[in-house]
Hints:
This protein is an alpha/beta fold. Helices cover 43% and strands 19% of the residues. The chain has helices spanning 19-31, 54-75, 94-105, 119-124, 128-135, 165-185, 200-205, 211-232, 247-258, 273-277, 281-286; strands at residues 6-10, 34-41, 84-90, 109-113, 139-143, 153-157, 188-195, 240-244, 262-266, 292-296. The two termini are 30 Å apart.
Amino acid sequence: MMEYKNILVMVDPTKQEQPSLARAAYLARSYGAKVSVFLCIYDLSYEMTSMLSAEERQAMQDGVMVQHRQWLIDIIEEYQDLEVEYHVVWHKRPFEAAISHVKENNIDLLVKSTHKHDKLKSVIFTPTDWHLLRKSPCDVLLVKEHDWPVDGNIITAVNSVSEDPDHINLNNKVLQHATDLARVIKGNVKIVNGYPGTPVNIAIEIPEFNAQEYNESVKKHHINASLTLAQHYGLDEQDCYIQEGLAEDVIPAVSKSLDAELVVIGTIGRTGLSAAFIGNTAEHVIDRIHCDLLAIKPDGFVTPVQ
C-alpha cells in the first residue's frame, strides 16, 4: 500500500490563507506523517545594494529571514497536533531550493498551492509549478480551493491501450496510488481515458474507408482495455469514462461533470525544448481543472536538478 510519511509543503508568503498547508495537514493526520513547512524567499534589491558591504547586506537578509521565520511559527501554531518543522531559505529559484530539500530529506510528497498561469509568460518563464511537475523526484500535489468531501470523486487519467512498458507501469502506479488514497480519504476512484477520433486525411484520401466503423473499433478497444485495468483494481464498468478527444480536453470535462476533488495523473517529466513546445499532459490539464492535481512520478525517475 502506498503511504505518504514525509510531506513537504511550500507556502506562499504573499497570502494569509494557505490551502496547501491545510491539505498537507489533512494528509498528515490521515497517514500519520511528518510535515515540513518550506518557505523560499529572495529579493534582488538586497544583492544589488552596492553602497553596503557584504556583511551589511547579509545582516539585512538575516533580518528578513527572521521576520519570515516568525511568520511561519505563527501560521503553524494551529497544527500543534502534528509533527511539524519549518525551514526558511534564501534562494532565487524556489523550485531548485525545494527539490534540493526533497532529495536531502527523503520527502515522498511535495504540496503546493497553485494559481492560473499566463499562457504567453509560461512559454518564456516557466512557472514554479511546471518546474516541479517536470523535475521533482517525488510526487507533487498542486492544491486549488476545491474541498475534499467524504465520498468525493478521484479521477485517474491513464492511457489504457499503451503497449509501452513504461506507460503500462505508470498506469498501474497511478491507479495504485489513487485506490490507496481513496481508502484513506474515503473517495471513489474513476478511470478516464481519451481516444483519438478518425483521422480526417485518411477519410478524404481513401473513399472506401469506413470512418464510423473505424471509430467504433477504436472506442471498443479503449473500453475493453480500460475495463480490464479497472477490474484489476476492484473498479466497475460505471467507474470508467471513455470519451473521444485529447486527454487535455477529456480530463477537465469529466472532472467538471463529476465535480471531482482530485485528478491523479502520471508525468514523464519531459524537459528541454520538447517540454517547451509539446508540454506534458499534466501541464495542459492544470489550468483547466477546478480541483487538486496529484502528479505521480514513474519508477526510476531522476531529477535533472543537481
